[in-house]
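Quick illustration for those who missed Monday's session on complexes.
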Amino acid sequence: MKSFILTLSVWLFAYTFSPVKAQELASPNGKVVLSFSLTKEGTPSYKISYKNKSVIKESTLGFLLKKGESLNAHFKVVDSKRTTFKETWRPVWGEESDILNHYNELCVFLEQTTTHRKMNLRFRVYNDGVGFRYEFPEQKELTYFVIAEELSQFAMAGDHTAWWIPGDYDTQEYDYTQSKLSQIRSLMPQAVIKNVCQTPFSPTGVQTSLMLKSQDGLYINLHEAALVNYPCMHLNLDEQHLIFQSHLTPDAKGDKGHLYTPCHTPWRTIMVSDDAREILASRLILNLNDPCVLSDTSWIKPVKYIGVWWEMITGKSSWAYTNDFPTIDLDKVNYTKARPNGTHAANNEKVRRYIDFAAQHGFDQVLVEGWNIGWEDWFDNSKDYVFDFVTPYPDFDLKGLNAYAHSKGVKLMMHHETSASLRNYERHMEKAYQLMNDYGYNSVKSGYVGSIIPRGEYHYGQWAVNHYLYAIKEAAKHKIMVNAHEAIRPTGLCRTYPNLIGNESARGTEYEALETIKPFHTTILPFTRLQGGPMDYTPGIFETDISKVNPQNPHKLSSTLAKQLGLYVTMYSPLQMAADLPENYEKFLDAFEFIKKVPVDWQKSLYLEAEPGQYITIARKDKHSNNWFVGNTSNENGHTSVISLDFLDKGHVYEATIYADAPEADFQNNAKAYTITKKKVNAKTKLTLKAARGGGYAIMINY
Ligand code: NOJ
Ligand code: CA
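Prediction with 1-deoxynojirimycin bound:
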């Protein structure tokens, strides 16, 4: 008996710690192959290949816990299960009206032999990449636990080229750097440009979505999907081994996630293709999110809007009403006694002018920032109670302006700058949304500028991540659509909550007037930031010389006027702003016509040309007509496209209007030189189009 027990325990030991045979799982088309195994220490590990080329070399998985044995060794495989899934689903809005979700799945059920704690790894393998997540079933052995660090590795097969922004717990509003992985450390100091609230964490730390290209032509993207009740994942490069290590955003105490079972992490995603266009066409992130949970989505409508906004960003006007108050106690302040500063933009007269302009040119909404009291000392004071989100300034007639807008078939768009005081926003949220319902607003642009309150928390920690989703869910109860700036970068949650119609969460057009944007920026964003969801990039700046708007502001756009048009197609969003001042559009009414006509919801999207950092050309078919629209964005070297219109209906003649850079156009010297050409086209037409340095083009093809 004794010897039997001895043999059994030796056998068990051998079973537990000898590497088990790898389990392989291929994508439906067989090109992407995932392999899972346990190392001899019982550490879960995986690798990924694409057409037999290595995408992720053997990489280990697990967690360091704050207390008790970590979840990174001594595992055995208890069971595993394979399934296949295929369906087509219809997004409420999107780049296409039907999305295919087709994957093979492997779920590996693991048990830690030393603690009997259970952890499952679920892998989904698509034709365009892999998603995996950790799952913790309900169990006595693991109830409440605190993560000290997630230990997911992404081992690169070479010193790839990367398009990266610094890893940061608080902001993504950075310019991209293009470099080899091995150069990240030396380039980091110049990449960490100043921002009002920033917390970079490592000289080799970068953010997701991260875009990479291998020397042998593989395009690889690392990101996450369905980030819920968990901190945002960054990547920290071990440059000696070219391994990215997950790095979670901590909370105020340095902890990296408070969880209790049953629970699971977000999906870690690896997209791959040897054709850059397929990365843009990928719906992997959306597919890994849960289907829509809202039973009625009829109130969710794509929005094209203008706003009382650019004049504040350029410094021409102010959000604040008065210069009288050095500090403000919101409960005691009396604005009726304050002297107006004369630059407050959100006043009745101006807002009416914007409403008239929106009505005349067919825009759905007018955003008005600086309408509510508190802006005099909102910025950077770590002040808890800055805004109440319901009290207008004396020169903003909340009721009258809404009635005026509605009488003209236009809505006002609400603005909630929270000054990153999340708790204060949550305290006022119900009344703020109710006020919107009372006056007929159905969309809000929210914002989170500055350091988070509660103090010590970060924009991308678990606490703040939960706040952003709370705001979206509460908004849905009030039939309100949300466009959140400075919030967590999106991870496809707009599939589940399609009232999340936009986010900023990257360096947007405002930086053209505040600092700079590199000309190649918009050739990278669709590969990175837009993978998780639409961006309120606020394009459409026609007066590229900002000093013409505000003589004190010397900035110039890093884009031509024609490229500003192209962005309405290349930067997909169901929410698009025409961001310039009405008077600037009035100077270029022929080019403005494109912004008026371009749809914000699509039946089909075709990615005609793409190379990160260089150019992107996309053709999209309107969801509600047979018209097509083409857009291009190009870097500082310009680009010549030869595109075939073979996507048009065979035998039908269309009328194309081409908005292009003039031959002499150049983003630095002649940004506003454009041409407009009309031409009959059909499915056999080939067009040669030239984007200037920092330029682009747009085409409207009417059926
Ligand atoms: C930053 C946002 O990105 C910008 O659009 C907004 O105008 C300001 N915050 C003020 O809320
Ligand atoms: Ca911003």
